[in-house]
Target: Proton-coupled thiamine transporter
Amino acid sequence: MTNISKSSDLIVITEGALITALALVLSFVPHSTGVSSIEFMYGLIPMAIFALRRGLKAGLMAGLVWGILDLVLRGFSNGGFLNPLQGFVEYPLAFGVVGLIGLGSSRVKQAIKNGKSALGLIIFYSAIGFFAKYFFHFIAGGIYWGSYAPKTMNPWIYSLVINGGSFIANMIMMLVLAVILNRVFKRLIVIRD
Model:
């Protein structure tokens, strides 16, 4: 391995650590809305930018670390941890798959470099990562959190409403920010040589 490669890997790891720390800090900002448990996850925005900037592998690793840290710092203390399998599904796994946004890294960067609008691609690949995250929360919700559903409601429908609502809320947040901050997103995604 050359010195340039080691230096590049160190830069990616450092960026990943900083983004993970930012996402975790943003998790402590109040983010529930309405009478239900629909939540805005503000950390999804920097994670999306990082995954688009650095690709699939780096995005998956940063999401995984974010999930582990969130489990340790919030899950154990706020009652979000019921048992080891549920904890694994809703924290390391669900947060880790946010990195799937990195599947679009090369396409988004290429569109930006060619002067084309990357907004549609950013939203599309963000939807993949966000959907994957909330799909795992939906599964865990139906299996583990069903007892919290209203008595007359099927636990799977309850989980779909809560997690589907959170997915939609976060996609709207991403869309609004991507439109408003389009130029900033472009600068953050494309790596200068």
